[in-house]
Amino acid sequence: MATMADVARSAGVSVATVSHVLNGTRPVLPHTRQAVLDAVDALGYTPNTLARSLVTSRTRSIGLAVSAISNPYFTEILQGVEAAALEAGYSLLIADPHDDPGHERKVVQLLHERRVDGMIVAPSAEPSDLVGYLRRHAVPTVFLDRLVDARATGDIAPDDGADGAASAPSTPWFDQVCAESTTPTALLVTHLAGLGHRRIALVAGLPGLSTTSERVSGYRDGLTAAGLAYDERLLVSGNSESDGAERATADLLALPDPPTALVTANNAMTIGALRALRRHGRSVPDDLALCCFDDFAWADLFSPRLTAIAQPSRELGARAVRVLLDRLAEPARPARTVRLPCAFVHRTSCGCPEESGSDTGAARATASSTLAERGTAS
Questions:
Q1: Which one-letter DSSP state was computed for residue 116?
Q2: Pairing of β 363-366 and β 61-65
Q3: Helix runs in the chain, H state only
Q4: Which end of the chain is more exposed for a tag (fewer CB within 10 A), N or C?
Q5: Closest CA to 210 of 283, 122, 295
Q6: Residue closest to 317 by CA, chosen among 27, 92, 20, 52
Q7: Are 17 and 37 in contact (CB under 8 A)?
Q8: What does the DSSP 8-state code read for residue 231?
């Protein structure tokens, strides 16, 4: 079996230079780097990752805890994480917390015990145990898709006020990466209102998630902007899953004055809503207009094609990796929250005619005017 010394002799360089090329620890001249890589290929050299981790205290691995099996939305995010990690020379250890706070805490501990260098986690609606574990063990972590409020978990940063009074309710201990939710949801509501709808309902997600609260806020903002009164009966919870949305949509249809338009707050709930509408003999958009948060691969295969907010799923995953690598390189840097803009994908389920001049029949526009990247002190 070839060793690093064999590679060094073949390339005509020192063992230290080989190490710098393989580990990226110091810049190396391009022709020298290429000579080392050619020697690695010719000799079939495979780095001893375990030995390297004992020396550097780094495993060059990232733990990823997202509900990718139970939530197809996270599958695309996972692809972005994997591609960015591989490009940076990191491997992934993946666990599915199933959006369960108890299971979430266990899988994160298991990943930590595997000595990952850092973690990317999509937290549950009750992340107190998770946050407590990560803080106690000082695990470099990026929260993905869903934000965690330090006040909500009882984890107020020590610089939030000398007397213990928090100066900012959402000062994070951890870096966070998510998409904009409030403004895009408001855009769906105002779009439907602009088409003449006055009773617009929202099937919201699981209570406790930041994405749920932000989309509910966007729904109410959209009603206000359109001059429409808020009716609490038109805001129902689908618990972020298909069956819950099916029940919630059936409840809306049973109202004495049912909605004429519906916004669903994620892709799984869109499927549940469509199932309920079909079961009750309602046609989209003739009987009820529909817009959804989360575009997905087959959204334009439905009839009618679904008007949706598209999140930059893969870029969210890739950005989370880059933010984590920044944290590993500079542990003392202030925590930051990165938000990426969404796109409004205009199709026909809202009741509008097919867009002309588009090969896909869908017009895309940025739902958030700019990418906002805000840094807050940890």
A1: -
A2: unpaired
A3: 4-11, 15-23, 30-43, 49-56, 73-87, 101-113, 128-136, 150-153, 182-194, 210-225, 242-253, 267-279, 313-329
A4: N
A5: 122
A6: 92
A7: no
A8: -
